[in-house]
Amino acid sequence: MTINDLINVAAEAYYETYLLRACWDFKDQCVAAGTHGDTLATFIVRELSETFDTEATTDKQLQTARKVMQNAANDVLGVVAAMENYNPDENDNPEEHAHE
Q1: One-character DSSP codes across the chain
Q2: Is 64 exposed, middle or buried (0-12, 13-18, 19+ CB in 10 A)?
Q3: What would the pLDDT profile of 75-87 be if each residue is shown by its tens digit?
Q4: What is d(CA 20, CA 18) in angstroms, rounded to the nearest whole number?
Q5: Long-range contacts of 63-67 (CB under 8 A, 24+ apart)
Q6: What is the reported pLDDT for 92?
Q7: Which end of the chain has the smaller Cβ count within 10 Å, N or C?
Q8: Which residues does 10 contact at the CB level (< 8 Å), separation at least 6?
Q9: pTM of the prediction?
């Protein structure tokens, strides 16, 4: 499996395939220069490319990619849970309002 193959697997699953592909330079096999308006797509491409091992088998590549994406998903879910559980009455920080 090449890094381009792995990016294509991710792009096919991404809700806007073209945005994820726009974040990757398939010719030079690196994160594409510039901004593409989708920081999540850029994040995915960066994570996959930074953990890609040219010496690893396809199974190992996919295992590593799944782990990296699952760790990121868990982090995002943790943020969502914190926002769902936030109670401003219990968590009000007086210093937050010091400059009002």
Answers
A1: --HHHHHHHHHHHSTTHHHHHHTEETTTTEEPSS--S-HHHHHHHHHHHHH--TTS-HHHHHHHHHHHHHHHHHHHHHHHHHHHH--HHHH--GGGGTT-
A2: middle
A3: 999 999 999 999 8
A4: 6
A5: 65/6, 65/9, 65/10
A6: 66
A7: C
A8: 20, 44, 45, 48, 65, 69
A9: 0.81
